[in-house]
Design a protein that fits this description.
Layout: H1 2-9, H2 15-31, H3 38-44, H4 50-59, H5 66-94, H6 104-113, H7 124-145, H8 148-168, H9 188-211, H10 214-234, H11 240-262, H12 269-275, H13 278-299, H14 301-308, H15 311-328, H16 330-339
Length: about 350
């Protein structure tokens, strides 16, 4: 397996970004365990998806025309989504561990619509694609204006308009009876904000690293934990406009927390490898997790019930099982990178004669 790690090293990548993406995909996988306790979900919900949008904005370089950019994103995102989401549907109809909400053809059709909670599969990949399209034009405008204030104001206004839509839109007005829109158009403002923050972070990364000493880091971590857990423990809710500011503050502090952690974690090859292959992990992890849970329920049902009845034991169980799934998926990830890289928008790695 070292061969595949070495091949990954030859690519020009940013270590802390791959570590941050590893943290993100770890919590994505963990969130899909049925036994994941609510107190743990409260901790990672603000950042576990936002960090991917942030990293996408951070690594973006505005160098090509829209036509070339569009083709590249279709190859890197739409093609993998189409292949693995439909493969997921086919496998589920051959052997499913969960109840099907609709028939095979209906699932295929709804998957093409990509409406959240409407039998869509691998929703995050199309959501990232749609966000990238908007991001391209926003950054092209910003590169001409060079006005950070206007850029951030635009993103804030769009995010607030999304909040208004979520708050006041009547789902009965849409044929699918949900306020979600095809190809996650309704999610673009939130994703765009995180991508823009990532894009702008490059300009402030040096002072961020220099001025954020241990005291500031501990303060940020403490504030984040208070913001997340005080409303949770006290069962506090906010009116919708206050919830908008609270929610985004948690998101932003969560992203900062992950950046701080990612920049301190040693760059172990296995973490970098998983972090650089999060697309494959996102496509494959759900089936592995479901199969693992089914095995526990069938063969260790007493132990499984005992563990899941205790929130702390359940959290430890989920974390351990997520680590196991992450290790197991290295094998199919290496296989895909070696023999089927086109399915995830990559070129075949070069062969070496001395190995």
């Amino acid at each position: 397996m070292k061969r595949y790690f070495d091949e990954q090293d030859r690519k020009k990548r940013i270590g802390w970004v791959d570590i941050a993406k590893f943290i993100g995909i770890f919590f994505v996988m963990l969130s899909h365990f049925e036994s994941c306790p609510s107190f743990l979900r409260e901790f990672f919900t603000p950042f576990y998806l936002a960090i991917f949008f942030f990293c996408s904005g951070y690594t973006y370089r505005h160098r090509e025309g829209f036509s070339a950019f569009f083709r590249k994103k279709v190859r890197q995102l739409v093609l993998p989504w189409f292949i693995y989401s439909n493969l997921n549907i086919i496998l589920s109809n051959i052997k499913s561990f969960k109840h099907h909400r609709s028939g095979f053809t209906t699932e295929l059709f709804r998957n093409l619509l990509q409406i959240r909670y409407y039998d869509e599969r691998l929703w995050f990949i199309p959501a990232l694609f749609s966000a990238y399209l908007a991001f391209y034009f926003v950054i092209r405008w910003y590169e001409k204006k060079k006005d950070r204030g206007q850029l951030l104001l635009l993103c804030a206004v769009l995010a607030f308009l999304r909040k208004l839509y979520k708050q006041f839109m009547n789902p009965e007005l849409l044929p699918w009876k949900l306020i979600k829109l095809p190809w996650h158009i309704d999610y673009i403002p939130t994703a765009l904000l995180f991508m823009v923050l990532g894009y702008l972070f490059r300009d402030v990364e040096a002072p961020f690293d220099e001025k954020l000493d241990l005291k500031w880091k501990l303060l940020i971590a403490a504030v984040y934990l208070l913001l997340v857990y005080v409303p949770y423990m006290g069962d506090i809710s906010f009116v919708w406009f206050a919830d908008f500011f609270y929610d985004h503050l948690c998101h932003i502090l969560g992203i900062i927390l992950i950046i701080m952690i990612a920049k301190k974690i040693p760059a172990y090859k296995i973490l970098l490898y998983i972090g650089s292959n999060t697309l494959i992990y996102f496509c494959l992890h759900n089936k592995a997790i479901t199969a693992l849970e089914v095995c526990f329920k069938r063969f260790l049902s007493g132990l499984y019930q005992t563990v899941t009845a205790n929130p702390l034991l359940s959290a430890l169980f989920c974390a351990a099982m997520t680590a196991i799934v992450a290790l197991l998926l290295i094998v199919p990830t290496a296989f895909i990178n070696r023999y089927l890289p086109w399915t995830v928008g990559r070129k075949k790695p070069p062969h070496t004669n001395n190995q």
